[in-house]
Amino acid sequence: MTFSGEINFDGLIGPTHNYAGLSQGNLASQKHFNKTSNPQAAALQGLDKMRLIMDQGIPQGFFLPHERPHLKTLRVLGFDGTDEEIINRAAKQNPILLKNVYSASSMWAANAATFSPSIDSFDQNIHITPANLNTMFHRSIEHEFTKAQLELIFGDVAEVHDPFINISGYGDEGAANHLRLCEQHLKPGFQIFVYGSSAFEVHQGMIARQAEEISKAISVTHQLDPDRALFLKQNEQAISAGSFHNDIVSLANEEVFIFHQEAFADRIELERILHHLKDHVKGFHPIEIFSEDISLDDLVSSYLLNSQLITVKNNEMMMLLPKEVQNHSNCMRWLEEIKSSSPIKHIEFVDILQSMMNGGGPACLRFKITVNNDELNQINEKFLLTPKKLMDLRALVTKHYRDKLNPADLLDNNLVQESYRFLDELTQLLDLGNVYDFQKL
Ligand code: SUG
User: Fold this and answer.
1) What is the pLDDT of residues 70-90, one digit of tens each?
2) Full-model pTM
3) E strands, 302-381, where?
4) CB within 10 Å: which end of the chain, N or C, has fewer?
5) For the chain, what is the domain count?
6) CB 100 within 8 A of CB 23
């Protein structure tokens, strides 16, 4: 298949993947709190999903797991001594803090950053802004390594901005709240920024992670044409029903835009945007899911729309869904219906149960980018998968990862060294030199 412009970078799932119940408003994370995880199965499931995309002839990249436990955060917070002493002190004084610095949450690469392709920007540059993720503590410690990694991968071809980190209450959750509509990937697009609320709105019991102010700021720093940067507010009911990110209730690929009837707050604004897209995107194909067919609750528990929609041969599309969707007859009926009435002609299911149990479906695990051929050649190829690299990564995961991990095991000092040993061998395998803090000490 000829290169269509799309590449996905998936987060390689790290060796400390666990269920510490850290994300309020994320129903799966809350439901599976304190369950035993299987980091090895998690990482292999993620790699199998990457292989499935590669099998379609689409280039596939990956992000490194972040250094966890993140002892640097504990040091900043006043814990000192050897690694072992720091872990022991944190375990005694503040076990929840320790769990936070152990989270493998960087696997959900859709939250790494917001990406705008060069074709959409006035200066014809690719723009990438790492997400600050400042709504949840365990995620707020990701942006520093994310930025370093994005520079390592895209430094020769893109402008990697600083994350918006110094403004209290201004959350940014990256591409999980960002959609791009276009006739084809490499034609000019319309970018829809979806936000939870203004940073200055007060909410009772609802966590709106994406601030309107950040969404607007990114559209400006990415140099987008104001006529092509569109904004939609998430519906509070959708957030409360478990759609903490918009990519649980809507999905886009090229000219196809799928959304739930209750995804957005303002119907009139939605209609205006739909008309605008109809007038300007050739073949624009909106698909609305009605509540009477699939309720918000069913959408959230199935993760039907947290799937990857990719363009495959003959301009047809493939939807890559979590296997859990198969337990929902209304979702299966809907899939049959769209197969006969839209460019989506292929349906595949993937088993990523380990990630799903923490609220991360196929779409959460990937950072989708659009580049032309020249730009593709300037991406650091060490982060692009080949069949051989995939085999090597599988072998390394199998060698190092535990197949059982309880949140209580995070207090076990051996896990620190196990995790760092894996990361060290990973950087050797990929010939990256020293990228982690523990390697630079
Ligand atoms: O931020 N889960 C992630 C899931 C992110 C899903 N991403 C997208 N929808 N794009 C989150 O809530 C769970 C961590 C824990 O409970 O240990 C967690 O962080």
Assistant:
1) 999 999 999 999 999 999 999
2) 0.97
3) 308-311, 317-322, 344-350, 366-370
4) C
5) 1
6) no
